[in-house]
Amino acid sequence: MTEATTQEQPFRRLRYFHGQLLTARDFQREQEYFREKLKLRMRCLLGYGVVCGLFVEPAPPADDKAASDKAASDKEKHEHQAKVRITSGLGVDCDGNEVVVPGSCSIDLWDALHEDERTGGTVWVGVEYTERAVEPTRTVFNSACADTSDCDFGYTEESYCVRVTTKTPPKDDRCETCCTPCEHKVLWLARIDDVDFGKPVREDQIHLDVRRFFGRRVPTVITGINWRHGHTYTVNEAKELLGTQKDSGGLVVEFSDGVRVDSLRRGVVEIQVIEGGAGRNADTWYMGGEFKEPTGKDGEFTDHFRYRQTTRETLQEGDRVLITIRAAFILDHCCRPVDGTNVGGRVPYIGQAKADTDAETETGHGHDPKPEPDPTGCLVPPSGIGPWTSGTGAGGDVFESWFFVTEERS
Questions:
Q1: Helix (H, G, I), strand (E, B) or coil at 372
Q2: Are the C-beta atoms of 370 and 196 separated by less than 8 Å?
Q3: Considering just the CA atoms, what is the radius of gyration of the chain in Å?
Q4: With contact defined as beta carbons under 8 Å apart, do 50 and 89 qualify?
Q5: Total tally of structural domains belonging to the chain
Q6: Rounded CA gap, 125 and 146, in Å?
Q7: Cα–Cα distance for residue pair 252/226, rounded to 1 Å
Q8: Do 203 and 121 lie in a common domain?
Q9: What CA–CA distance (Å, rounded) separates 221 from 293?
Q10: Are residues 310 and 265 in the same domain?
Q11: Distance between CA atoms of 268 and 326, rounded to whole angstroms?
Q12: Which parts of the sequence are annotated with region: Disordered (predicted)?
């Protein structure tokens, strides 16, 4: 079917008049007109990605029971146990086609991979929009000039196919997805690490952060910081964290994508100290600092920065250190602002795994303190997938976080 896009040709609508001879081709083109209009509105006004569902999870044993009974004598059946399931859901591809998975779908990763890719390791799973002709129908009238046989398919079924590969899928780096041609039609849903075809897939091997959530664009967000929001550090830990007394340390902020180095200017990051006390006894002052990374490195973009204290002020018992990052002034590769709202203070701590290991043997070292109890509510973001990041979808805004200071750790 020939697709009409804004780049290739203008839209043409069927114009009726008395005495007009209409053929199957005319009605097909009328369908195409409305379908292409809907797809244009979808990708330009709303965007594309996963709308709901389409989760990838380990296939439960019940999914394999029928196949096991049917192929009990098949030796290869016992060798390949790496299977996952895609749950029902809805997605929209980058052309504007709606990809509907009406029921859960089990996938044998070995069978789904091309024979040249059956090496194990990391595997990506996705879905792609497809169509197929269905319901054979006998024609009522057929002339010598007809371009169809006596029997033809009467309907086109919109469906999907599963795509599995060991090759890293290309990233959609387009800044404008409306009228720019789409090259990659697959909606990638999950990355599965350390696949062993002889063993069942575990839940911890499946990573859903590769999903593109439905929208016109994927905003750049803050994905990690090297201090614990709302936690209490000793004076020495705070000094090491801020890089107060030596040319090391500093506050580290990581991004989901590259941001422009030239947008990391003085004033973007601000460290305010609210001294201990209450009412008129309290006082505030601003701590001087500068970007230490990526300043001096080659490259137009960076996926992180380090901000270090440059003045010699010291912290005292009861101080609160307020860190403000003006995300609206940090631009990504499309010159759009970072979506920086620290929703619920849940942006992940970069040293989480290390701190958890330290906590098992000691109270922590350096500026990795003993973890305090995590919040009991809203443990996962609204999407239900992966760690929290900054952002509400609106873009820009201010990232705020703070920690407290004590003389000694009790």
A1: coil
A2: no
A3: 28
A4: yes
A5: 2
A6: 43
A7: 5
A8: yes
A9: 18
A10: yes
A11: 5
A12: 355-393
